[in-house]
Structure formats: structure tokens, C-alpha cells
Specification:
By secondary structure, the protein is of the alpha+beta class. It folds into 3 domains: 87 residues; 48 residues, no CATH class; 57 residues, Nucleotide Exchange Factor Grpe, Chain A, domain 2. Helix content is 66%, strand content 15%. The protein starts with a helix and ends with a strand.
């Protein structure tokens, strides 16, 4: 019986060993499967993180491009408005000597006291002046006694001031200045007192 028991015990032990080895194998397979699933989840998370990072990068790129485009639109719109405002600058600058001649002619005709001649030239002068004003030309109002500003006036000479009030101020306006919109197209030429 001992031999039989020993062989039974051996068989039983072998079965247990086989069961243990099968159990170990199953546990190993389960552990490997769990690791694979966790690894896949880790890869998936890192892939998701990568996709999120890429999305944020593209979103930032898009926002910058959009902001740049908005700035471009604003800048070109502003430039276009400025161009329209000053598009006539060359023509207006060419017309200023004609306007000056009209002013001188009006002063001389007033001295002649010929009312019919004065009325006719005055009509033409007013129409010409209104047309230029409608196109954006504005005369700069500078008169004797105004403070001289080098940014706004062009001093052609300095003379001794006729009175103490006119020292450092404008004594005479030789040529009228004009603006087209906000831009000065001809600075007034003045004489200052010292």
C-alpha cells in the first residue's frame, strides 16, 4: 500500500504541480493581458495627449493668423481712407497758385471800384473756391499777432517787431497755407518779429 499510496501521492503531486503550473501560466497570461491593456491605455492616453497638444498648437496658429489678418484689414482700410482723403493732393497743390492769383486779382479789382467787373470775377472766384473747399481743401487761418509755430508755419524772414506785442509772433502773412483733410499741403509763409 505504501507503494500504491506513494504512487497515488506522486500522481496527486504531479496533478497539483500540473495544476499549479497551469495556474501559474494562467496568472502569467492574465498579468500579460492586463499589462497590454494598461500599456494600450497608456499609449492611448499619450496619443490623446498628443492630439490635444497638436489641436492646441493649430488653434494658436489659427488665432494668430486671424489676428494678423484683422490687423491687415484694419491697416489697409485706414490706408485706403487716407489715400482717398489725399488723392487730390497733387491737383490741389497745382491749383494753389491759381487761387493766389485770384486773391490778388480780387484785391486789385476792389481798388478799381468797377462794380460789374468785381461781380463777375467774384462769381468765378466763389465758385472756384467752393469747389476746392468741397474737395477737402481748407485755408489755414493765420493772422498778424498769432504765435509763431515752426511745425505749422514757414518763416521766410525776421524783422524788428513794430511793437513789443509782436516780438516772437507773426508780423505779416506773405502766402496763405492750406490743408487737405488733416494734412498740410502748403505751409503759410510768414514774417516774424524779433
Amino acid at each position: 500500500m505504501n507503494k500504491q499510496q506513494d504512487s497515488n501521492n506522486k500522481e496527486h503531486n504531479n496533478e497539483l504541480d500540473n495544476n499549479d503550473s497551469v495556474k501559474d501560466q494562467i496568472e502569467e497570461l492574465l498579468d500579460e493581458a492586463i499589462e497590454e491593456v494598461e500599456g494600450a491605455e497608456g499609449e492611448q492616453l499619450s496619443e490623446n495627449d498628443q492630439l490635444k497638444a497638436d489641436l492646441e498648437k493649430e488653434k494658436d496658429k489659427f488665432l494668430r493668423l486671424f489676428a494678423e489678418f484683422e490687423n491687415f484689414k484694419r491697416r489697409t482700410s485706414k490706408e485706403r481712407i487716407e489715400l482717398f482723403k489725399t488723392a487730390n493732393q497733387e491737383v490741389m497743390s497745382a491749383m494753389l497758385p491759381v487761387l493766389d492769383d485770384f486773391d490778388r486779382a480780387m484785391n486789385e479789382i476792389k481798388k478799381a471800384k468797377d462794380k460789374n467787373l468785381l461781380k463777375g470775377v467774384e462769381l468765378i472766384y466763389n465758385k472756384f473756391n467752393e469747389t476746392l473747399l468741397n474737395k477737402g481743401l481748407e485755408p489755414m487761418n493765420v493772422k498778424q499777432g498769432d504765435v509763431f509755430d515752426a511745425d505749422m508755419h514757414e518763416a521766410i524772414t525776421q524783422i524788428p517787431a513794430p511793437s513789443d506785442k509782436l516780438k516772437g509772433k507773426i508780423v505779416d502773412v506773405v502766402e496763405r497755407g492750406y490743408k487737405l483733410g488733416d494734412k498740410i499741403i502748403r505751409y503759410p509763409k510768414v514774417v516774424t518779429g524779433k
